[in-house]
Amino acid sequence: MTATGQAFWNRIADRYAARPIKDVAAYEEMLAEVGARLRPRDRVLELGCGTGGTAIRLGPQVAEWIATDFSDRMLQIARTKAVPPNVRFVLAEAGTAFDGAPFDAICAFNLLHLVPDMPATLAQVHAALRPGGRLISKTWCFADLRRTLRLLFPLLRVFGLFPPATSLSEPQLRQAILAAGFTIETQRSFGRSPQSHFIVARKPGPP
């Protein structure tokens, strides 16, 4: 990610942490869906963990959860919480977060539209997973929004109110994941955000 993006997330980290979850039921449903795909012996890497809420909730279900983010302020906030002993927060960009590979699962929630080179990131994820390992992701596809909303994001970015992001469509997201060598097991949306696509993709091979 870019220095501009890092500065944006450091600047808004405290506001981000204080903001309540918009759709609690959808978030809980997503956590249940992710948790059902994890095993007690799994080693999990999370890319773009933010202030750590998902890592703290799901980490106790696995052997090890390494939660990474490139915003040091986000991680400072995460470390003030009640962190389970098997959850570790690490400062790292999405492209350099794969120390300790291979992993059984790699999570990327609200991240793939933010990385500067999504195909390269997906290739790194694929390489860092064990055969049979899973990429568990949720990605905003801004290109699927109404045109009036799509035009709003560049304006917000000019005023520093929106981070650098790629305007992906759902077919583009699917094709990028497939092109990286994954098979898609599950795809769905939660709650009132049909443009936010939850995808579980598997690296071929025995688990």
Query: Shape, please?
Result: globular
Average pLDDT rating: 90
In whole angstroms, how far apart are the ends? 31 Å
- CATH level 1 class label: Alpha Beta
- Give me the side-by-side strand order of the main sheet: 3-2-1-4-5-7-6
**Major beta sheet, specifics?**
7 strands, mixed
- Unreliable stretches, pLDDT < 50, 5 or more residues? none
- Element pattern in H and E: HHEHEHEEHEHHEE
CA-atom Rg in angstroms = 16 Å
Count of individual beta strands: 7
GO biological process, one term: methylation
Pfam families: Methyltransf_23
Protein name: Class I SAM-dependent methyltransferase
GO molecular function, one term: methyltransferase activity
Q: Please, could you describe this protein's structure?
A:
GO terms for molecular function: methyltransferase activity. It comes from Fuscovulum blasticum DSM 2131. It holds the Pfam family Methyltransf_23. The protein is an alpha/beta fold and 207 residues long. It has one domain (3-202): Rossmann fold (3-Layer(aba) Sandwich). The chain contains seven helices and seven strands; from the N terminus they run ααβαβαββαβααββ. It has helices at residues 3-18, 24-35, 53-58, 72-79, 118-128, 147-158, 170-179, and strands at 43-47, 64-69, 87-91, 103-109, 129-140, 183-188, 196-202. The chain has a seven-stranded mixed beta sheet with strand order 3-2-1-4-5-7-6, with helices on both faces. Helix 1 runs parallel beside helix 4. The longest helix has 16 residues, at 3-18. The protein is globular and about 45 Å long. The model has no long low-confidence stretch (mean pLDDT 90).
